[in-house]
Amino acid sequence: MNRRILHVVTNTAHFGNSKQPTGLWLSELTHAWDVFAASGYEQRIVSPKGGRVPLDPRALKWPMRDASTRAWLADPAKMALLSSTPSPADISPGDYDAIYFTGGHGVMWDFPDNEGLQAITRALWEKGGVVSAVCHGYCGLLNTRLTNDSFLVRGQKITGFSWTEERLAGVAREIPYNAEAQMKARGAIYEKARLPFMSHVVTDGRLVTGQNPFSARATARKVVALLNGA
């Protein structure tokens, strides 16, 4: 039986109430998708509200517009996957072996408090599945509680887009919270690379997180290794 991966993407197209655009950081989806596809895994995409997924325009420029993202953009079938996504209510957690939260700043608004995503994540985790995220995707784990009411991330080693990287990206004043600080407040053991924007992956049991867009492939490879029993 093929392994099945559930990708989570944002529906948020702007920073809060501003006109500044955001959305899915496309390479964080495509790089992982390529890795999972090479292993023969079945894949599906879900978003908090279902429907259309906006793309962050910054992720469509060099150097992020690489062969992987160009191939996705040129493939009508792949683009159709982002034009009409299912919502959490359409997903049965028991059908999946791993969940992978993608990033882009939009997720800071629509991931943390989505009860449907939390329910999927909790069910998958408690049945022994792999929970993973890259970059801002870890915002989807901020408020997920287990059936014992503890935070899933409490006591877990984790990484994600750092506050230093937010400042260097020039958006620290535009975002609704400091995700790194919020993770620490929930008892997570936050780690990051010595230098910003370097690939960095942290694995703690069945929890796999990557720090930034450049960590997507390595994050997916670690998920594959765990699912293959390595």
Automatic annotation (TrEMBL):
Keywords: Glutamine amidotransferase, Lyase, Stress response. It comes from Komagataeibacter oboediens. Belongs to the peptidase C56 family. HSP31-like subfamily. This is Type 1 glutamine amidotransferase domain-containing protein. Residues 27-225 form the DJ-1/PfpI domain. InterPro entries: Class_I_gatase-like, DJ-1/PfpI, Prot/Nucl_acid_deglycase. The keyword Lyase applies. Gene3D superfamilies: 3.40.50.880. It holds the Pfam family DJ-1_PfpI.
